[in-house]
Every structure is written in C-alpha cells, then in structure tokens.
C-alpha cells in the first residue's frame, strides 16, 4: 500500500488541528479520507468555467422576492386543466393560454419552466416564447423528465424515466435558449412507503439527471415530491421528507454534482416542520429551495410560503416558489377560453404573482379578500404532471 500522507501532506496536520492536537482519525480513517480526496481531485466533473456558469445561473434564479412559474404541464395534464373550463385541449388553446401568461410583465418571476412543445411555439406577435421570456430578463427552464414508471413489487411506488438520450436533449435545449431544467420524482407515504427501494432509486435517478444537466450547462432543479395523499400525520410526513432528502443529497454527492449549481424543489408542509426537515438535510451550499404547491389552494400555498419565511431559525438558502397549479388556477377560471376575458385572466395571474413575491419575503398576510378560485383546493389524488 502507498504511504497515504505522501499524497496529501496537509491532511494529517488538518486532522490534528481540528482535534486540538489530538488526532481525530485513525491511520485507517486517514487512508479512506485520502482516497476520497484523491478521487475527487483527480477526476473533476466540471471545469472551473462550467462551475462559474452554473452557479451564476442559479444565483440569478434566487433573486430576492422572485420565484419560478412552472408552466411545464405536459399535453395530457394541460388537457385536464382545460377540461375543467370546457376548453378543447388543442395545440392552439395551449399556446394561447401560455401567451396570455407570458405577455404580462412577469415582473415577479426569475424563471419560467416550459414543456417541450411550448419551447418551440410563438407568441401572438410571432416571437418565439424563449425570446419573449428572455427579453424580460427571465431565465428559461425546461422539463426534461418523461414521466413516472411503476416500481414492480411495491405498493404503487414509481421512479421517473427519461435518462435515455438526456444528454443530447439537454445540449439541444441549451442551444435553444434554456439555462435550467426540471425533473420530477414522486414518492408516497403509506404503511410501507416510501420504501427503501423507492428512496434509493429516486435519489439515484435525480442525481444522474442532475449530473447530465450540469455537463450541458443547465442548472438542475432537483424535485423529489412527496405526495400529501394519505391519512398520516405531520410527524410522519416530516420524517419521510428528511429520509428522502438525506438520500437525495448523498446521491448528489456520490455523483459529484456541484451543489452551488443546483436548486431544490420539495413539497411544503406546516412551516416549522418544513424548515426543520430542510435544516437537517439540505446543505448550505444549495442556493435556493423553490417549493411546489402540491394541490394546495392558491391562498394556502401563499400563506404557507410566507409562514416558512417567518420561521425564526437560520435559513442559509433562499426559500421561494416554483408553483404550477397555485399560480394558474385563478387565471384559468377567469379566462374560460374567452378572448374577451384575456385581461381579467392576466390580472388574476399577476395578482397571485405579487402575493407570492411578498410570501417569498415572509411579508404576505391574509387580507380576507381572496376570491373563490384562489381558495379552492387544487388537490388531485396521485397527481401526475
Ligand atoms: P404544482 O405547484 O402544481 O404542485 O406543480 C409544480 C411542479 O412543477 C410540479 O412538478
């Protein structure tokens, strides 16, 4: 065996220093630490330039008082939204509604996540959507996963597909104007869930996705969503969230993912439980955590986000929003597929954006004026995106 210290002359000194003169590690520990040290430094996953680019994109996305609009519903999911207001799920109607959203000021946003189809559509004025968004100083994101697939032999648990060809797709999306990506994994709580298999599998696939995105200059949003479905209590949910997040960050480390160039998109619960779970598991090097709304009503999601930002505990990351349902429900309800309602729909959308901007600073207080659409639960059992 090689003498371990010759490769890493400062290591033993550092361990002595940390231990106040008493060695903190045995010689065997030092061999292990030295080997880890050698591994990461001999085969760097990213160049300094790549890291700089990724961390500057991630920093732009966590600007204070701003958040992300998740407008990346697949064709099928958008169909369900449109069906609720009796609007046909045609390519033109999907384009029209997205145009309605994107042609507002989008002042409270730093990022918009698109679905593949939308990335290649144009505004009413004939301008490609990525350009419309970028011209407002907003970062363009893209959903890159291909939906869930069952984990056989489990209580209905899933993994998420889409790794095949992902690198090539990411390279193309980067060329086409995207700077970040999203991949949603879904976990559930029941007597037997989340199982060890589902935790390990979803953590690993998120890490593979994140690593591939970073190689292609896209900041990965890492989304391990734990569904609210079930009759479990808050404690159980917090426990599951901690176990899932701990596994995700172990996998990201194993895959040499550069955390400063990532964002986390988790479920949110009652504020104190949420912040406690995050403090126990999410490294301080992660620049921001942008919550999904997960079927809460628009108003509930905003109030919870605001409460999270008022918790008197250290929070080393920005805590903001990346809502889908909780940013679009009032707008869809106001629109009803009628061109004459366009302005009313835009006003509803902008009003939610302003409220969530306040919430991301912990400054939103209920006014009691939220309308019917904003109070309505947006929950769907076993939600697919
Ligand atoms: P909801 O806010 O509707 O839960 O969805 C956000 C999202 O992007 C889920 O992947």
Give an overview of the whole structure.
The protein has 385 residues and is α/β, with parallel strands linked by helices. The protein is built from 16 helices and 10 strands. The chain has helices spanning 4-7, 9-18, 27-42, 48-61, 75-84, 91-102, 116-119, 129-134, 166-175, 196-215, 234-254, 271-281, 298-308, 325-335, 342-359, 372-375; strands at 67-71, 109-114, 139-143, 148-150, 158-160, 180-187, 219-226, 263-264, 288-291, 318-323. The strands form 2 sheets. An 8-stranded parallel β-sheet has the order 8-7-6-3-2-1-10-9. Helix 13 runs antiparallel to helix 14 (325-335), helix 13 (298-308) runs parallel beside helix 15 and helix 14 packs antiparallel against helix 15 (342-359). The longest helix has 21 residues, at 234-254. It starts with a helix and ends in a 10-residue tail after the last helix. Residues 1-21 have low confidence and may be disordered. Keywords: Glycolysis, Lyase, Schiff base, Signal.
């Amino acid at each position: 065996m090689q003498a371990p210290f010759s490769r890493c002359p400062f290591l033993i000194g550092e361990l002595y220093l940390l231990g106040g003169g008493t060695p903190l590690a045995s010689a065997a520990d030092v061999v292990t630490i030295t080997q880890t040290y050698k591994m990461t430094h001999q085969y760097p996953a990213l160049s300094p330039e790549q890291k700089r680019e990724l961390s500057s994109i991630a920093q732009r996305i966590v600007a204070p008082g701003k958040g992300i609009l998740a407008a990346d519903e697949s064709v099928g999911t958008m169909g369900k939204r449109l069906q609720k207001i009796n609007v046909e799920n045609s390519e033109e109607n999907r384009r029209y509604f997205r145009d309605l959203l994107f042609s507002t000021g989008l002042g409270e946003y730093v990022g918009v996540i698109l679905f593949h189809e939308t990335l290649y559509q144009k505004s009413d004025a004939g301008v490609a959507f990525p350009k419309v968004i970028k011209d407002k100083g907003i970062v363009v994101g893209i959903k890159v996963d291909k939906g869930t697939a069952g984990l056989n032999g489990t209580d209905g648990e899933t993994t998420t597909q889409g790794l095949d060809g992902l690198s090539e797709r990411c390279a193309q999306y980067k060329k086409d104007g995207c700077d970040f990506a999203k991949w949603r994994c879904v976990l559930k709580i029941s007597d037997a869930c989340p199982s060890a298999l589902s935790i390990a599998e979803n953590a690993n696939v998120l890490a593979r996705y994140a690593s591939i995105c970073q190689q292609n200059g896209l900041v990965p949003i890492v989304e391990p969503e734990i569904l609210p479905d079930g009759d479990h209590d808050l404690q159980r949910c917090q426990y599951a969230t901690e176990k899932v997040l701990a596994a995700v960050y172990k996998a990201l480390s194993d895959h040499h993912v550069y955390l400063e160039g990532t964002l986390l998109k988790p479920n949110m619960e009652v504020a104190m439980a949420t912040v406690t779970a995050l403090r126990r598991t999410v490294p301080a090097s992660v620049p921001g955590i942008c919550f999904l709304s997960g079927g809460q009503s628009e108003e509930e999601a905003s109030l919870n986000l605001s409460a999270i930002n008022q918790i008197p505990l250290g929070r080393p990351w920005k805590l903001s929003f990346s809502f889908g349902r909780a940013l679009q429900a009032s707008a869809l309800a106001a629109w009803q597929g009628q061109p004459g309602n366009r302005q009313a729909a835009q006003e509803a959308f902008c009003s939610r954006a302003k409220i969530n901007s306040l919430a991301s600073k912990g400054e939103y207080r209920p006014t009691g004026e939220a309308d019917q659409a904003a109070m309505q639960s947006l929950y769907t059992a076993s939600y697919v995106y």
